[in-house]
């Protein structure tokens, strides 16, 4: 909504306190899944569905491109993220943020794979600064929060317990610049 310059109110729920299981929240998200968008009487769950809804309801600043080629490129990037990037990121998020059981070996391997992912992203971002074309798209908004969460999780006590430390981001200047461009959209509230 910040990208589209729409007014909104954001409320973060603490899943560890089961705030996503309150009767009030379950009334709009029966499975308790996050995120959820409530736009007047319309309720949309899941990040991709929310972005798609917002793109159709508020078409200025298109998140899926202006042309069929741009839309296809954006969806292709999102599908590739789901197949290749998310399997690298989810084990780290699960272990370091949601305290899912894992072994030190598994978490070390996942962290090494994360560095490889940063290298791949850096190469793709070198051309235009964005993942799916010449401008910000749903593909960037899909991957950014996961990458940011993993980077932040590397500096936690939990990560230190696994012997992890944040990999140097110096070799990934295009990733760092991409994250800086996206940061204003993640902390804004109107």
UniProtKB/TrEMBL annotation:
GST N-terminal domain residues: 1-62
InterPro entries for the chain: Glutathione-S-Trfase_C-like (IPR010987), Glutathione-S-Trfase_C_sf (IPR036282), Glutathione_S-Trfase (IPR040079), Glutathione_S-Trfase_N (IPR004045), Thioredoxin-like_sf (IPR036249)
Species annotation: Bradyrhizobium lablabi
Protein name: Glutathione S-transferase/maleylpyruvate isomerase
Keyword line: Isomerase, Pyruvate, Transferase
GST C-terminal domain sequence ranges: 67-190
GO molecular function: isomerase activity; transferase activity
Claim: Protein biosynthesis is one of the keywords in the record: no
One Pfam family hit: GST_C_2
Species lineage: Bacteria, Pseudomonadati, Pseudomonadota, Alphaproteobacteria, Hyphomicrobiales
């Amino acid at each position: 909504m910040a990208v589209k310059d729409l007014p909104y109110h954001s409320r973060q729920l603490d899943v560890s306190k089961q705030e996503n299981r309150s009767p009030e929240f379950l009334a709009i998200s029966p499975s308790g899944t996050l995120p959820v968008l409530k736009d007047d009487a319309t309720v949309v769950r899941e990040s991709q569905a929310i972005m798609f809804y917002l793109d159709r309801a508020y078409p200025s600043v298109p998140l899926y491109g202006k042309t069929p080629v741009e839309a296809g490129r954006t969806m292709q990037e999102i599908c590739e993220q789901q197949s290749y990037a998310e399997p690298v990121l989810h084990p780290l998020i699960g272990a370091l943020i949601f305290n899912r059981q894992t072994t030190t070996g598994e978490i070390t391997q996942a962290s090494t794979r994360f560095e490889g992912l940063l290298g791949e992203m850096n190469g793709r971002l070198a051309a235009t600064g964005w993942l799916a074309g010449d401008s910000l798209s749903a593909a960037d908004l899909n991957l950014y929060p996961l990458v940011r969460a993993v980077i932040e999780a590397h500096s936690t006590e939990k990560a230190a317990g696994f012997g992890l430390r944040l990999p140097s981001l110096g070799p990934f200047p295009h990733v760092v610049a991409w994250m800086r461009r996206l940061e204003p959209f993640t902390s804004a509230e109107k």
